[in-house]
Amino acid sequence: MRRRDLLAGAAGLAAGLAALSASVRAQEPVPVVASFSILADMVRQVGGERVAVTTLVGPNGDAHVYQPTPADAKALARARLLVLNGLGFEGWMARLQRSSGFKGAVAIASTGATTQARGEDDHGHAHSGSGGRARPAADPHAWQNLANAKVYAANIRDALVAADPEGRAAYAANAARFAAAVDALDAEVRAALAGIPAERRKVITTHDAFGYFGRAYGVTFLAPESVSTEAEASARDVAAIIRQIRADKVPAVFIENVTDPRLLEQIGRETGVRIGGTLFSDALSGPEGPAATYLDMVRHNVRTLVAALAP
Ligand SMILES: [Zn+2]
After folding, report:
1. Which of 30, 155, 179, 235 has the greatest count of CB atoms below 10 A from its CB?
2. Ligand 1 centre distance from Cα of residue 283 (Å)
């Protein structure tokens, strides 16, 4: 082989390597930050292998009272997309966004979801935390209604397509698969709850996180704490709940994975009502736990409720 051919071959090889490295770069996962574990799971379900998700408030964490860390600011600075719940859930986020120098896109997952007011029960009236003449703010826990989870996933899909257009087909297919799984679970939930008589569909939890679930599936949830865990329940709130448990013959009280169990344990002792188990309200469990994904969380919560409420 002549020297000129050798050089041409080497140049061709170098060009090939450059093209290869560009295509490897293009396949690097899109860095996405999700504010809390439930959203992070939805981003993973829709994003699949095309995304690398960093979760700010991790498993069993309480996003209402979260304090961001320097590592959170670093992750956010590198991210191309930030996915939030919105509805005032992440009160600490605006400051973190500013301090991190984040330049990516922001997706509010709850946009277009069916919302209800704070403390609004299944009869459509507000029973706490909505005093004053102003229209009460929305309850942020919209993910507890399975129908809303499909809205969340569609918003996440659209945001991922905007951040990474080459992944459009993959994101659309993943979001459709997730929506189908949500529909199947919705049917499962309705069937499981069908056997619980109306007078036993009353549940106490620590904070008011299940208003959406309650309205979607016809279960009344009462809580000594409001829709946020920021303010602790007063002695008066606790006394009111205890009176209501006795008057309404509430069958069980439930601990939440994100709140201190002692208040509910005390209420259980004072009323003689048993603890029905742990419900996952604002966060998933760790990967080995019973609520490692959003769908597993809903399934676990319903199984726990049915086991405690069945006559
Ligand atoms: Zn909450």
Report:
1. 155
2. 9
User: Would you write out the chain's pLDDT as a tens digit for each of its 311 residues?
Assistant: 456 666 666 666 666 666 555 555 557 999 999 999 999 999 999 999 999 999 999 999 999 999 999 999 999 999 999 999 999 999 999 999 999 999 999 999 999 999 999 876 544 444 444 344 456 789 999 999 999 999 999 999 999 999 999 999 999 999 999 999 999 999 999 999 999 999 999 999 999 999 999 999 999 999 999 889 988 899 999 999 999 999 999 999 999 999 999 999 999 999 999 999 999 999 999 999 999 999 999 999 999 999 999 99
Task: Find the 226 Cα to ligand 1 centroid distance in Å.
Answer: 8
Kindly list the domain boundaries of the chain, sorted by start residue. 25-185, 195-309
CATH number of 195-309: 3.40.50.1980
Q: How far is the CA of 254 from the centre of ligand 1 (A)?
A: 14
Quote the ligand 1 centre to 65 CA distance (angstroms): 10
Architecture of domain 25-185: 3-Layer(aba) Sandwich (3.40)
Say yes or no: do domains 25-185 and 195-309 share a fold.
Answer: yes
What count of residues does the chain have?
A: 311
**How buried is 28 (Cβ within 10 angstroms: 0-12 exposed, 13-18 middle, 19+ buried)?**
exposed
Query: 140 C-alpha vs ligand 1 centroid, how far in Å?
Result: 7
> How many angstroms separate the alpha carbon of residue 207 from the centre of ligand 1?
7
Amino acid, res. 272 = G
Ligand 1 centroid to residue 183 C-alpha, Å: 24
